Amino acid sequence: MKHTPYSKKSVDLMFFLKGVLFVLLMIWIIYYSKIFSSSESFQNTIGPFTFDSYGKYMMENQNEKLVRPRLTKNIPIETEDCESKCNQRACIQMAEQKRILNECLKCNAQKNKCYAKSIIGGVCNDCDDSEITGKMDCLNILNFGCINPYNIDSNNGVEPYFIQMPTDTVTSPFDTDCVFCWQLKDFV
What is the rounded distance in angstroms from the CA atom of residue 187 to the CA atom of residue 20? Predict the structure, then answer.
């Protein structure tokens, strides 16, 4: 007869207790995984909106008073007499940007002509049939336009300009009291 240290009842009781412990452990894991998954899941939301519903909300509610950053109306936008008021190098850059923008606008105004970007600004080429309907928007801020200072969240730009900051009343983050339109783009 073989000697066993445990009786049949005690072995059955140990298997039963291990089974109960295993079931309780599984219930505990399932319960806490649901708690953590609901509290630690990262959702693409903006307040009560998802990113998709936020875009839809903005398109449907354009007339509501939403906060749109812009310059105040009492700061004049200037385009002339830059050299006597500001840094000459920046004035040359503004004149060059204005020249390229005017070339683009004149080119696109011609029938069967399209303006194309290049390293030195751009060139006026003959259009393909596909390009005639999709001519470049020269005033777009991604092309040659400057940010509209009264509606800076729009891609519809304006001609190059500078702003003379009233240094006695406004602290400018720039090195000079002349702020050019391309400098504003970095702060939008």
Answer: 63
What Å distances lie between residue 114 and 125, 146, 172, CA to CA? 5, 21, 39
* CB atoms inside a 10 Å sphere around CB 98: 16
Q: What are the extents of the domains in the chain?
A: 77-185
Dist CA 188 CA 154 (whole Å): 11
What is the per-residue pLDDT across 75-129, written as a single tens digit (0 to 9) for each?
778 888 888 888 889 899 999 999 999 999 999 888 888 888 888 778 888 887 7
Residue 4: both structure tokens together: 């066993």
